[in-house]
Fold this sequence. Notes:
The protein is built from five helices and two strands. The protein has helices at residues 4-15, 19-22, 26-39, 49-66, 89-103; strands spanning 73-77, 82-85.
Amino acid sequence: MIDIDSVTETLCAISGISAEEIDNYTVLIQNSISVVENALLDSSLEDDSRIIYLAATRAYYNIMLTGTNADDVSGFVAGDVKINLRAQPAESALKLYQEAAEAVSGLVRDNGFVFRGV
Length: 118
């Protein structure tokens, strides 16, 4: 079983979410771990740092999709009321997840669509 504490620690590091606040996302973290565990080709890889990182980036992406931790504002000026918006946080999180998935492509099943015949 992938260690939830390791995934949570990695998630805090990549997301900037505090350890106290991360408790609000336990369900998403556990779901991400389950998805990654089910995709593993070999259960002995559960402690591999790349697998832990994959589960953390998946959880981070799911958290960003909820929008509850989205901080879209990168600047605010009260004088002439100017607000700058960042790129969508979910896009950045997705990129991290895709890169993590690519790094472990030989360690997990690809559950993508395959057309096997007519």
